[in-house]
Amino acid sequence: MDVLINVFVALHIIGIASLLGGFLTQMKAMGAGTARFVPAMLHGALTMLVTGIALVGLNQADDQTVNNVKIGIKLVILIVILALVYVRRDEERVGKGEFAAVGGLTVANIFIATLWT
Fold first, then answer.
1. Crossing angle between the packed helical segments 39-61 and 68-87, to the nearest 10 degrees
2. Domain that holds residue 33
3. DSSP letter at 92?
4. In terms of C-beta density within 10 A (0-12 exposed, 13-18 middle, 19 or more buried), how is residue 21 classed?
5. pLDDT above 90: percentage of residues in the chain
6. pTM of the predicted model, to two decimals?
């Protein structure tokens, strides 16, 4: 079971890397007002959602403790990110505020995951 959990943790990290990487590649464009949500951001967020749900299930099946409050907050943040990215995914330009919100929420999710024990 540990190997399977670790595989899903690795996939979860790949998802966050895709989301954050997509944001970081568009930061220069954000300054110019031409930033857009790239497909990697949507795919990364969806990967995080699927692997996160799987991780909660696998950890509970393995009789490990799961901090449901932490997971709930991370899920709400991810749903907001997904909603913003999904709705505006086909737009040529996204407002600086929306784009910065996705980046900020992504970083917040990372800090919640790593610092909240």
1. 160
2. 2-115
3. S
4. middle
5. 98
6. 0.93
